[in-house]
Every structure is written in C-alpha cells, then in structure tokens.
C-alpha cells in the first residue's frame, strides 16, 4: 500500500506523474474447471484477499465480486475470461520504461553517482572479501562494499544455485485502431490466475498481452560465478540465465506454444474480436529472477565479506520501486525487521533444484501460488519444436521488454 500511495501521486515531479502510472483497476479471475492443488490454493488466496479487502472500510467500495462466468463476461465484454473473479478499482499499472528514465535523470542530476556503461565479467576478490567488479575490458572498479542487484543475470556473477534462478516469460504486443484503443482504454487490467495470461490497457495504440507462469529455463555453463563459499574453487557451473543471440539466435522469437497461448489471451481477455489473428508488433521474452517462495533475496552474503546481494524479484519487483531502495538500505544497516527476516539468505536445499543432475538441468520451481503453465520448459528445446513452422508475422519496432507492471 505504501508503494502504491507514491505511484498515485500525479505531479510532474512525482514518480507516478506524466503518465508513468495509470489506475485502470484490476480484474483477477480464475477457472474453476481446472481444479487441482495449485488452482485451488490460488482461488482460496483470491477469496481471502477479497474478504479482507471488503472488511476494510477504506477499500470496500473498490471491490466488486463476479461470482459466475456470466457476470464476469458481461462486465468485461468477453466470453472466456474466467469462471469467477473480482475487480479492484484501486489497482493500476506503472510504465517501467518511463519510470526508470525519469528516475535515471533525477539520480544523474544529483552528480553523486557515476554511471558506467560496461559488462561485468566477474567479481573481484581478495582473500575472503569481495573488493570490486572486473569489467569486460579488464578494468576493475573497486569498492569497500559491492552491491549486486543484477536481476536475472545475478546467477552469472554469483553461485545462487537452488536459491535464485532466471526464468523467461512470454510477452506480445499488437497494434490497435483508434477505435479499438478507445475501447481498451476503458478496460481494467485482467489477469487469469489459472492460465497466467494477462492484458494491460494501452496508452496509445499498442496492447500488451503476457503470461505470468513458471517460465522458460535457459541452462548455460558460466565460468566465472563467485563460488558459494570462500574455500571453494571457481569452476564452471550450469545455471539458467537470460538468453542471448549466441544461445537462440533471435532472442525476441517466441516458441509456438507461447505464441498460441498469448493469442488465446487476446481472444479470451479482451472485448475486441479478431485480435488473436493480428500480426505481432513485437514479441519478447522477459526474464524474472525467481526464488522458491517468491520472496526476494536481499542480504549480506554469509561467506564473502563486503558483498551484499539484492535479487529474486520473482516477477513482482518493479511495482515496489518507490520504497524498495529504502528497504534495501535498512537491511544493509541491520534494521530490516520482519522484511529483513523474510528476505534473508536461505539454504539452497538438497533437492537438486537449480542444478545439473545426471546430465539434466533441474529447474527451481517457484511455489508462490501465482504461477501457471508447465514448469521446467527449456527455451531452446521449445524453439526447436517451432523450427519448420511458419513464423508468425512480426512488425519491427523498438518497444521496451517489460514496459509495465500491475500494482
């Protein structure tokens, strides 16, 4: 709630101003017919959340229940959005690209931060201390404290196997007519918990559809990740990390199953017929930094002195932009409280998740009750299944990858 209060401030000098935040409302839906443990827990979670919200006098007017498929469909103007759900009119979405550009300019204007545009090859150590970062040109940036907040790339710099893992999520954009854009601008964001599919109402004439699921793995050998302990040798390890052109060629291409699923989202979650047959304006694979429980990993490294790690967004990090930095500093200073205990360095476990076992990579599975789809899919393998098929038409553009986040 504290983060959302900041997003709602609409002054030009506020984070949420100049169309960086839109309070569109959010419909959270689910399919009763899918059954099973995962969906049942997800439905219970939604119901409990809704009950808690409706008992709060400040939010009761913001929540509207849809107890049936017909009621939900009538409100959204769709036939297949879900079997039931609820609308929270107090929710909205933030434009990540605009927000980060705004924040970058503000930080740069302080003249207290030097931005270095370079690739980090590895962390630099001296005895049991991390003392800096070695860049791809072998220049070393030294510091008393090294804070690594590299998102889905963190596992290439630090051995986090079994704790944090990169997973790829499918995203697509289609262009709308002016009339269609006007219709969608009046719609809330819609997320179906059972499928993970969601759409975010556009500003302008581009509509985003995406899938929040277990995601794709991209197992690769990395050679210079900082070992888990100070006594271990640096050696090649297999981790899932974001894909590159060297891995899969066109990094923006979607596997056939993701393409079909996103088109199903356009069909089921929007009131505009025929969007599912439209050429993509852009497709992307957006990379999460996942943990087992969906909580961040924000803590001092237990073995290496001088190293602080802030990662494990699990797909919901950006919406906390207004306050996450302050919380990270609190943890660094030893005053993280309950949140610090939740984000503490966790045991990697002995189940083999996040590691290569008998020649096969076993992905870490996030069990935060928000994920849908098939766990353990490998991006390269899914793309190979697509070879020989007619590639869906895509118009070339320069859209940012994860350009929005629901709140």
TrEMBL record:
Key word Flavoprotein present: yes
Family: Belongs to the MSOX/MTOX family.
GO molecular function, one term: flavin adenine dinucleotide binding
Domain FAD dependent oxidoreductase: 21-330
UniProt keyword annotation of Oxidoreductase present: yes
Protein's organism: Ophiocordyceps camponoti-rufipedis
Cofactor: FAD
Residue ranges with Low complexity bias: 396-407
Residue spans crossing the bilayer: none
Official protein name in the record: FAD dependent oxidoreductase domain-containing protein
Pfam family, one: DAO
Keywords carried by this UniProt record: FAD, Flavoprotein, Oxidoreductase
Region (Disordered): 385-407
InterPro entries: FAD-dep_OxRdtase, FAD/NAD-bd_sf, MTOX
